[in-house]
Amino acid sequence: MDRETERRTSRRAFLAAASSAGAGAATGCLERLPFVADEAPDLDDDDDNEDLAGDWTSFGYDASNTGFTEGSSVPTTEYDVDWSFETESAIQSSPAVVDGTVYFGSYDGDLYAVDASDGDELWSFETDFRIAFSSPAVAEGTVYVGSDDDSLYAVDAETGEEEWSHETGGDVWSSPVVVDGVVYFGSGGDGADVHALDASDGDELWSFETDESVGSSPAVVDEVVYVGSLDNNVYALDASDGDELWSFETDDEVLSSPAVADGTVYIGSSDANLYAVNANDGFEQWSYETGGEVVSSPAFAQGTVYVGSSDGNVYALQAVSGDEIWTQDVGGTVYSSPVTAEGVVYVGSHDDALHALRADEGDELWRHETGDAVDSSAALGNGAVYFGSLDHRLYALS
Description:
Distance between the termini: 43 Å
CATH superfamily: YVTN repeat-like/Quinoprotein amine dehydrogenase
Number of domains: 1
CATH architecture: 7 Propeller
Number of helices: 1
Helix content: under 10%
């Protein structure tokens, strides 16, 4: 199989990774599971950690998509399975956790709100097709999420009632981000654009056309929107009017979402590389080649960049130089995007598990097995780790 055929086959496998239906129910158990590393990491267990970290409001945690939160009482060396919630189809959407409620989408086409403490369903909102990769963003009492029915929806966070919807003309895989009353996201098909909508009523403020679908989820930093496209490019756009500031071309599709920190944009490409690009001018600072497509979106924490690859590895790199710190084999393709807190990196894999790795060395602390691949990225909040699986379930570990 040549490189092009292999790449297209891999992408088709990713886009078609979810499958059959099942019944929806919440189930719970409280089984204490030990860490599996030879020794635990030096984690800070002082009383400050008893105060739960802030809400996880959108994909990548914040508008910079760093995937990093501080002071979170999340499971590190051992964990309980608090509950799981079953939908009628696969979950690749990554959850948001706000005010004790977990919001997430499913391939069954529904946006769900469940109680973070026990997994009881609070409400569900039905779209006209699957919610595949788009992950909800929550701002000012409203949940925003995209659907493969070509629309972005705004739904009341408390009641699940629709506030408005905006039709784009193509699938909405991209996860929205809300900054200063504006919703930014991408779309595919005939509506292969980056969009900026008024968060209050869905009116379009501007759109920027790319040559292929935009499945990447934007980062918005210092009034600049950074986003990737399947046309192989990474774009920097003026947040106020959508004017292009610069573009950076890779050698393949960019489905990975950018993380922006310290004046640098970190983003993966299906050409197997993770790139570091100057946020001001788009010039490459460094690149690091993995052994497979980088669909996973990087996380940035304390001078280190973490990212997964379809080669089955998670990588930790020096943010300034791109030098490798460690590599950890997690047993299967990684489309899930790492997140990190309290010295631990959490990431899903096609070995059907969520892995907890030491952030400093990469050693595995524990893994939680599910019934299918884990493409969903974890959300950290309410003292727990929340993530979905292609086995149709959302899990809560604490």
